[in-house]
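User: Some background: our group keeps a shared notebook of sequences we're curious about, and every so often someone picks one and asks for a predicted structure to add to the entry. Today it's my turn. The entry only has the sequence so far, pasted here. Could you supply the structure so I can complete it?
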Amino acid sequence: MQVHRARHLLAASAIVSLLLPLGSLAAPPSAEKRADREALRAALLAVLQRPSLKVSRVGVHMQSLDDGSVVFTHNADELLNPASNVKLVTSAAALAVLGSEFRYETEFLVDGMSAEGKVKTLYVRGKGDPSVTTERLWGVASELWHAGVRDVGEIVVDDSWFDMERTPPGYDQEDSDRAYMAPTGALSLNWNAVAIYVRPGSGPGAKGIVEMEPPSDYFIVENQLSTGARRARRVSVTSDPAGAQQKIVVRGQVPAERGGATSQWKKIDNPPMYFGQTLKQILNTRGMKVRGRVRQGLTSSSARMVYVAQSDTFDVLLKRLNKLSSNFVAEQLLKTMGAEGRGAPGSFGKGVEVVEQFLEREVGIARGTYVMKNGSGLNDANRFSAAQLNKLLRYMYGRFPLAPEYLSSVPIAGKDGTLKYRFEGSDAVGRLRAKTGTLEGVSALSGYVTSAGGEHFSFSMMVNDFAGRAGPIVAGLDALGAAVAATGSSLGPSSAVAALAEGGKASGAIDDVAARIKTYLDLGRQRDSRNLGFLRTAWRSERDPAVRAVLAESLYQSNPHDYLGARTLLDSYSAGNDVYGRLREVARVLSVEVPGVTSMVELAASGNTEALARVLELAGATGADGQAQAELSVALGEVARTAPEALVVALRSALPADRDAATTLLARSLVEAGQGDHPFWKSLRRMLGAADPQVAAFAKGLDSTLSQKVAEAKAPRPSEGGGAVQVVAPAGGTPPPPPPPRPTGSAPEARTETRPGG
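Assistant: Of course. Here's the predicted structure to add to the notebook entry:
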């Protein structure tokens, strides 16, 4: 009887434990744990007092997953822009609604197929698969061949599973052709981006070579690339819609000595036609003749299915979404949830409705307490609080069997994804999993961490409205995460915070520093990806800001395709005396150009907005250094040639002192070029008629200011006589107005992706 009663008591206890919140039955914290918590709280408060965080809007919420207690909270209920942390919401809802075994399907149907394999029409009906690549299309071509297809009249691409609104709310705040801005489509290919490869011609002065991957009739390529003798690469690529095609314009110079090919990724604007034209090219190459055109349309009801291409299961796709922070996958998922949950065609609005229902019914976050407009977190479209994101993380942690798939999709500190280069040397490496978020004036980090003492935590940290570089903010967030990871260790959270102190200090005599820097420069110039491991280790352990900046440049040069390398360079390089000032000293010792400038200009010449801003800061920091002025003058001239409109936009946003210094150096470069038809003047004239009156007014003022500075640069100095370089510059206008105020917490940074993936 007692045994029977005991069994009933055990069963009742098990049921109660399942119904109570996570950690509700845990014992009160011990004295040792309370001491650890106090040490953690003190360390976190110390980090929040750093100047970069103290003047920003910061929301933090941390909670124990073991006992449910709130470990630390700071402005946790304030709605902030979470940037790409929104992907945590999108992926959680998709995993719950679609399931980890969900597969996308792309259908291939034929109409009027003869015994000889002649097909009147090949239909391709998409269902939103974000993972179709050129390689997968080659596999499809083989399947169609073995299904008997030999001759195709026309190809009809059917993307009616989604509506025709291709760009989500928030994307309209940024006019960019970068891959992270790729549109959605029920039929999509290569994340709706294309790789443009460039390489030098036969020698200096020869036309450069431009190749598309994948190649097809979808592209109209305008090649204005030349081969030069300089080591640096100054190439800009623009991608614009041209009806049913895409126009790709490549400008600039690629050096003969570099050899090999480098690439940039750009978005395309017509996903179904991109898919269809690429398929046509592949079918022809495979030996199947395609006689007719590619057109958009609906699949005939009489068409017969010949092949269905299935994606990997959703848990695999989820890793690409969160590890690489893919905006494209996030927005495709949002529309997929809309189509699957509310009926075709899938739309952004339907997808948001599905997410809102999931948050309200399952997570317990009421509608109207947050703002969600898109699935990726891009631009000023979303608002969540740290407490809300933490609540979602706690829910997913306890949602078996989805929890393993969800947690495994998040980047691991110091190991992979967008956290590959962060937290090195701290207890957080391998212990912390978190989603990053980055926009201009916005940085976020939310996820999970297991402390050195074995306790499990969830956390959400968001910073909005900070001024200047993101580097100090990222360092602060890393210090917060590292402090939690170090809880329970012998050294404790305060030591972890000290080890990840904001910035570093110059160390050693300049000759010794120059010798170290020369070693790292030589490794970067080898452009050998096999050096990455050593360079990453050196960058993580180095505390001297100038040496660290050079290591970041070498990381970027060793693998320009990795956007994290470019991101590291942008975060490590500054115009202050601790970096640019000391590197100018190093340049004089080594008799070289100032380290880092070449790579920064290379990024700026490709249209990277953050790199452009950094180049203008460098121009303002040259002071009276004639050698530095000459170098930046040449650099600005090259940027003006390859990314003229982007340079105007950057000048508009620059501080007045930096803008004045930069326009002076730019005028000198335009005079030395001696070309009245310089691409910069043409772009500036076009911007005089910009739809935005503020942009037009600034362009007019810049026109006038540059014309005056060009005239001053042309004027002969007293010792030079009257021989002045002739250059034609438009005249008229007013002085440039001040830059517009920054919108609260939201204007997007020009991220550094060289491949799609956010």
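Suggested note for the entry: The CA atoms of residues 203 and 345 lie 53 Å apart. The longest strand covers residues 245-255.
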